[in-house]
Amino acid sequence: MSYSKDDIRDLLEGRLAWDKIKEIMSSPKDDDRFDRCIEILQERVPWPERILMPLGEHLYVVDKSGERIVKCDCGHEFGDWRQNWKLNALIFARDTREKLEEIYPGIRCPDPNLCEVREFYCPGCGTLLKVESVPVGYPIIFDALPDIDSFYSEWLGRPLADRKEFKDMTCEVTRGWGLEADGAHG
Amino acid sequence: MNERRGIGDRGRTLKQMLEDNERLYQETGCYAGIVEPRLLREDPVRAELFHSRIMAALIAGRETTRMISGSPYVREVAELCIGLYTPEGDNIAQSTGIQVHIRLMGDNIQWMVRNNYEEEVGIEEGDLFIANDPVISGVHAADVYDMLPIFHDGELVGWVCTVIMEVDIGAVSPGCMPTPNVERGTDGLKFCCEKVGSKDRLRRDFEHKISISLDMSDIFLLDRKGAIAANIRVREEIRNIIREFGLEYFKGATRELIEEERRNQMARIRQRTVPGRYRDVVPAEFPMANQPVSWVPANRDVIRLIPIQMDILPSGRIVLDFEGTGEWGWHPFNATPKALWGGLSISVVQTLSYDGRANLGSLLPFEIKEPPVDSLLNPSQVRQLATSTMWSPLLDIYGLWMGMLGAAFYLRGFREETFNMRSSSGWQMYGYDQYGTKRPLMLSPLGNFGPGATGVCDGVDNAGWVATPETDMGSVEVWELFAPHLDFTRRFEPYSVGYGRFRSGLAIPTMYMPHGSRQMVASGAIGCAHDRIIPNLGLFGGYPGGRRNTILVRYANYQELLEKRQPLLCEIGDPREFGQQIQGEVLFLDHVLPPVEVHEGDLMIADNAAAGGLGDPIDRSPASVVSDLDEGLATEWMARNVYCVGVSYDDETKTWRTDEAETKRLREAKRKERLARGVPVKEWWQQARQRFMARSFDDRIVEMYRSSASLSQTFAQEVKDFWALPDNFAL
Q1: Average pLDDT over residues B267-278
Q2: ipTM here
Q3: Burial bucket for residue B467 (CB in 10 Å: 0-12, 13-18, 19+)
Q4: Which of A178, B37, B67, B266 is the most exposed place for a label (fewest CB within 10 A)?
Q5: Residue A115 falls within a domain, yes or no?
Q6: A127 contacts in B (CB within 8 Å)?
Q7: In chain A, which residues have pLDDT < 70?
Q8: Domain total for chain B?
Q9: Which of A133, A141, A180 to mutate to test the interface with B (most CBs of B within 10 A)?
Q10: Which residue, B475, B516, B716, B491, is CA-closest to B599?
């Protein structure tokens, strides 16, 4: 089962008609989808690093000189994929009624005493990469941490060079921030 | 010593069969120890015919029930499902419908098996068993299971089970999912796998009990008769299948169907997802302070966290972990570990196993870690609690979980499979119907919110309901015959949307006015929403839909408006101005809605909202924005301020037009605005950390963190690690 590159490109671009989308949804899945997508996405970005995996509409995990980093299609880099990329984004926290009502006017507005709607922007291009609605004080969510090495080696049968340990390294960043903040205060 | 001869395979008892099956699975990792599914593979055409015959029997049985039942839930909305089970209670096949119960109906069979029904209660040809107690297994007491054993030449070769959601189960606050109830006794009738008939007939004493106990006993008994008729029909067809295919083939192939589905499910996971860790969180709000409860300590407003972690392992197995879930409470929204499987079942058949072959095998690749004991998802006092609305947290959990799995599909390139869901709200009423009888009246249609966007197109409007893949609100005219009300609206609500490059589907707010009832009381159903915290349903830059509202409008001038033929409210309209034109009261009722008396001239509104949009809204195609404007599905304010598309209305053609240059300018300005007011997360983190350390939060938030930390050291440590808090900091 396989689709043409043009069909997959149209699918990603949102240009396919609903009846075609429905046909794709209802048919057996195409085994080469991942590779087709990577090929199309690679052609779209203006930089040379190899895309290992898409991480969103504009974000990718790429291989940069043996390191696996998160990169926006504008070229902005967010660091190791095992650290939540959001920590290197810009944030706009909608934590007042006024800020929330810009998106959720009138009776649609949540309670700013309890709810915070966080928007994460790319510092390079200002794209809105993620909206996070959580109770106030909740740690920034690390939405998806793909096990890239297991995926390539065990599921695709094409192991990547320089296997990296699969672990969440986000707290290494916040620990450093904490030491810096406490040092500054202490 | 002579062992008693059992009614199962080769004279084994059902308990022995169950234990043997579990041992074989443990030893081989394959269902029933089937390392090689020989029967299905040797003759695939015969196997396909065999499976089709079973499915045809189940689907025909389901339609039989719909013809007999008198309940709009069954006839209109089709809230039922039928499954075929092995003697040990493992699901072989399910009909279409509410496939929540793949495992749950089997849990009830296994409860009977483990409790030695074979010897102590007796399981014989034509015996009728029913169950609806979520303490055994289930997702709320309204779901009643009718179970019928299938014998062949004296050997029990399987079970057929039908589940129907009842309109009335005799709850203290009537309806089928009452929210004010907090204790078990208020739930209504509970049946814990009771034998209520033999020789294919209900016992007369059972019918008398129902007639005396339930206001809507006719509906309940008709549902039983519909279910029993369906079960008998399936049983007889299974006997035909056994005659045609042979008993040994039936026994072997039914088990192989489960094992094959397990393998197919593992293959789907490996084909469509990416291994790794996926996370999200449900903040569940339970404002019970104003409820007229039977147990006064229940009068508390609490918020509970339900963190969700999904690990897709390199093996292809999926592990769900709810570590960090807050404590149970005196409300009807506590769930159980078994109920979590019910939510997973219906979510799996809408995301992975939608080829008509879903059965127990679809669930075997999953593991649900036991939630912390005494958490909202695992209360040790569950026998004392009301279980009438256990569905509520499950809908929130699995609405988000679909999006988490959807993210895994997205990463793999299957963007068309990415979407999420949201719980919806409704009203349920009780009182005198238009025919003069006092009874529970209805639960408003709930399948009316907008599901999330996919990764390749907008979400489908008004098509979302976690509980069934076949969302159907039913016919308004039939609902109006069933209960004394007028249905005022079926309009899409533009502001219910989750914005995004692809927007969510839109919700329809339901609006009901009592009509023809001399006294009526209304209360909330399921989430009966008034979100203070909107769920985290935005995907890859899309926004979640906004706050849901439960609103009661009391017209002061209803008769006058009728006489002057002036319009009544039939849509939400601009959310900034809602209610301003109304003479009378506009009451925004709480998340958990206390019962209120309602009259003609009152309008009960369940203002639902949508799940999530996907992608940055300023990436949305201007043509899609204009199309929505032309259809009345978006507003000019949204076009300019959210999608940043320059638009103008052409009075001549009565259509909207885009202005390319204006769009470019608006979008560039939006990016500049974001870059100007966005701050580095590090900077924000330092301030937010100070706030966390000072506990400068609403009391409910402080208590929410305390509750989760009290049950999970792991959760507490993770929060402390993120905020770099001292070791001695107590959450």
Answers
A1: 98
A2: 0.98
A3: buried
A4: B67
A5: no
A6: 541, 616, 619, 671
A7: 184-186
A8: 4
A9: A133
A10: B516
Q: Is residue B299 part of a domain?
A: no
Q: Is the pLDDT of residue B445 over 70?
A: no
Kindly state whether residues B574 and B670 are assigned to the same domain.
no
**pLDDT tens-digit map of B604-613:** 998 989 999 9
Per the document, the length of chain B is 731
Q: Are A47 and A57 in contact (CB under 8 A)?
A: no
- pLDDT band of residue B181 (cuts 50, 70, 90) is confident
Residue B586, beta-bridge partner list:
B553
Measured in angstroms, the CA of A95 and the nearest CA of chain B are apart by 11
pLDDT given at position B229: 97
Q: What is the mean pLDDT of residues B445-470?
A: 84
Give the pLDDT mean for B246-255: 98
CB atoms within 10 A of CB A21: 18
- What's the CA gap between B217 and B235, in Å, rounded? 26
- Quick check: is B652 in a domain? yes
Chain A residues touching residue B615 (CB < 8 angstroms): 57
Q: Is B222 within the bounds of a domain?
A: yes
Question: B238 is in which domain, residue-wise?
Answer: 9-262
Within this chain, do residues B606 and B669 fall inside the same structural domain, yes or no?
no
Helix, strand, coil tally for chain A in percent (to 5): 35, 25, 40
Q: What span, in angstroms and rounded, lies between the C-alpha atoms of B235 and B258? A: 19
Closest CA to B539 of A54, A33, A74, A150: A54
What residues are paired with A80 via a beta bridge?
A: A69
Contact A58 B412 (CB under 8 A): no
Alpha carbon B451 to its chain's center: 13
A35: in domain: yes
CB A133 within 8 A of CB A100: no
B1 pLDDT higher than 60: no
List the domain range (segments joined by +) for residue A17. 1-44
The CA distance from B418 to the nearest CA of chain A, in Å, is 11
Mean of pLDDT over chain B: 93
Report the pLDDT value the prediction gives residue B629, as an integer from 0 to 100: 98
**Interface size between A and B, measured as CB pairs under 8 A:** 274
SS3 B516: coil
Please indicate, yes or no, whether residues B699 and B624 belong to a single structural domain of this protein.
Answer: no
The yes-or-no verdict on residue B575 having pLDDT over 70 is yes
My answer on whether B116 and B72 are in the same domain is yes
DSSP H/E element including B53: helix B44-68
A70–B contact, CB cutoff 8 A: no
What confidence category does residue B172 fall into, taking pLDDT thresholds of 50, 70 and 90?
confident
Chain centroid, CA B97 distance in Å: 12
B633 & B564 share domain:
no
Residue B708 covered by a domain:
yes
What pLDDT, in 10s, does the model give residues B648-704? 999 999 999 999 999 999 999 999 999 999 999 999 999 999 999 999 999 999 999
pLDDT of residue B447: 62
B667 and B532, same structural domain? no
Q: 3-class DSSP state for residue B698?
A: coil
**Minimum CA–CA partner of B708 in chain A:** A138
Q: What is the C-alpha separation between B220 and A43, in angstroms, rounded?
A: 62
